[in-house]
Amino acid sequence: MNLLASLRTALRALRKNKLRSLLAMLGIVIAVGAVVATVAIGQGAQAKVAAQMASLGSNLLMIVPGSIAAHGVATGAGATQNLNREDLTAIERELTTSVAAIAPINRTGAQVVYGDQNWFTQVQGTTAAYLQVRGWALAQGEPFGREEDAAAAKVCILGKTVVDKLFPDEEHVLGEQIRVKHVPCKVIGVLAAKGQSSWGQDQDDVILMPWSTVVRRLVGTQSDAVSTMMVSARSPEAVDDAQREITSLLRQRHHLSETAEPDFQIRNLAEMQNAAKENTNTIAILLGSVALISLIVGAIGIANVMLVSVTERTREIGIRMAVGARGRDVLFQFLTEAVVLASVGGVIGLLLGAGISRWMASRFDWPTLLSPPVMAATMLLAGFAGVVAGFYPALRASRLDPIEALRFE
Amino acid sequence: MDPSSNSGAPVVETRDLVKIYRMGDVEVQALGGVSLTIQGGEFAAVMGASGSGKSTFMNLVGCLDKPTRGSYLLNGQDVGGLSRDQLARVRGRQIGFVFQGFNLLPRTNALENVELPMLYQGIAARDRHQRAAEALERVGLGDRLHHTPAQLSGGQQQRVAIARALVNRPTLLLADEPTGNLDSRTSVEVMGIFQELNEQGLTVLLVTHEADIADHAKRIVVFKDGLLLEDRPVTRRRLSREELVEEARA
């Protein structure tokens, strides 16, 4: 019996028992649907994390003031003011082989006003190096430079969200004067939109201003204390060197003995990025194995139905054998049925999975990525599950004794 | 589509055919050494009570089973030592079966039922359709090609089964109680088809326990306790054609 004829025979047999065929393939439908949907969701998440990591900047280190213990009372990290601009300048000057750029950050919240619009946002006091460290770009305008920082110039760069809030109708914002707290500032640039960060924060709801403008004019102190420094190492390999060199330089500058606890902390964001990537990988593997298990369960469902079907159709098998079907013809027939069941189930599952991931994408604003190789592999796997599931029932059918089979009621 | 005719040469030739079934520790001798020759073109009826060994004999002749001892030549070929798959091939090509219970595939129309034996001979789909339609035409069911067994009467179902048995042009037609499920008039009609086929040269071997059905054959073989008891020609042969004419008159 050739392939086409046995395919048609299989389809005919499955059509005669629609409900049972449907139930038999349900397991495979769910399994394939689950694989396709979870992989799409997982890969979407990975792509999202990768994009977020890129927006965070590359090879990042963050230096924050550490805790100090005075008279047995420890303060929390960042509570002290023992990092200053001179530390930053020293790192910038002395560690040129490992450090690509370093930027100070002092934040303050501020009400911003333009015309009759106003908004409350984060103002980050920093230097031009900040854009380089974070790998951010300007959509319009120019960044501020050293002169503006030295002069505490009244200029600012706006994030996309701030532009939308203050200038709902206007196209041209460069050169406009806005008020940040009580300080009038000229808009000299607009940041390219970046969207949400991995923890759901709107990265566009921000204003960048020269560090000294924020500290001297908005906060209003003469202190040189820097609340955070962001460092970009020259390469992924240089991150560890940079961390070690910055540690020893700062210990030396802060006159710390060899046994003393450091009064600053260095956080390695590169490690965080890797951890996040590993997390999404772990989740993908987890979801994948759950889906594989459901594929096995689906195969068991097909095997079960095929066994029942072989018993029920014993007489049919006897008739086929009497009119000339060989054992292998019968084997092939039932194997084909199982594979057709699994493949049709697989196709339905594929459509279901694609539908679910589309729906997730639109309903929950969760990025999904349908991957053709994964879908093809899943289909192959489903077909293979059909072969495995169908083999034993088909073998049993092929070994029936034609006389007994013909007598079967 | 003529059934192959080879009058004269033996179609079935058994020598001391023995079949022993093993049921646990007990051995049951179903056939105790049967030697029988059926020439091409013969029409023989096999009779006997249940347990006489006639079914075992028919299974062996139909290549559905293998003998324990003895030899069986089908058209001169020794089929005693063939494997399961080789026997299936012999069945498909040389033997046509007609059963008491029709044994048609349910929910499958007449055409597809008749096509079934050709599926396993690698015959192209178009030829299958044509030959199946012709075979059904021959048994008078040319207008019932797309009816399923449930939509056909018993006699019509048996005709479909006969068409199926003929479609691979076998040299031997085996009919196992073909009229067992039919009323007397339909039985006579079905026997008429067998007689017609036999007249065209087809060798027919018929199992029955009804004497008046057996009288449609040309020769009667009686089994008892696994042995051949009697082998005689039919003296007053019934001809369906005449019976049906008489019945119409009555």
Write up this protein:
The complex is a heterodimer of chains A (409) and B (250). Chain A has 409 residues and is α+β, with helices and mostly antiparallel strands. Chain A has two domains: 183 residues, no CATH class; 182 residues, no CATH class. A six-stranded mixed beta barrel of chain A has the order 4-5-10-7-9-8, surrounded by four helices. In chain A, strand 8 and strand 9 form a beta hairpin. The longest helix of chain A has 44 residues. The model of chain A has no long low-confidence stretch (mean pLDDT 86). Chain B is α/β, with parallel strands linked by helices. In chain B, a hairpin with a 2-residue loop joins strand 4 and strand 5. In chain B, helix 3 packs parallel to helix 5 and helix 6 packs antiparallel against helix 8. Chain B is built from eight helices and ten strands. Chain B has a single domain, classed as 3-Layer(aba) Sandwich (Rossmann fold), CATH 3.40.50. In chain B, the strands form two sheets. Chain B has a six-stranded mixed β-sheet, with helices on both faces. In chain B, strands 2-1-4-5 form a four-stranded antiparallel β-sheet, with helices on one face. The chains are: A alpha+beta (409), B alpha/beta (250).
Return residue spans of chain A where pLDDT drops below 50 for at least 5 consecutive residues: none
Q: Mean of residue pLDDT of chain B? A: 92
Q: What characterizes the major β-sheet of chain B?
A: 6 strands, mixed
Give the termini separation of chain A. 27 Å
Largest sheet of chain A: 6 strands, mixed, barrel
Please tally the β strands of chain A and state the result.
12
Give the helix level of chain B as a range of percent: 25-40%
CATH topology of chain B: Rossmann fold
Following the backbone from N to C, one meets helices and strands of chain A in this order, namely HHEEEHEEHEHEHEEEHEHEHHHHH
User: What does the radius of gyration of chain A come to?
Assistant: 33 Å
The topology string of helices and strands of chain B comes to EEEHEEHEHHHEHEHEEH
Span from first to last CA of chain B? 36 Å
Name the CATH architecture of chain B. 3-Layer(aba) Sandwich
Rg from Cα of chain B: 18 Å
Q: Which strand order spans the largest sheet of chain A, edge to edge or round the barrel?
A: 4-5-10-7-9-8
- Which chain pair has the greatest contact? A-B, 24 and 28 residues
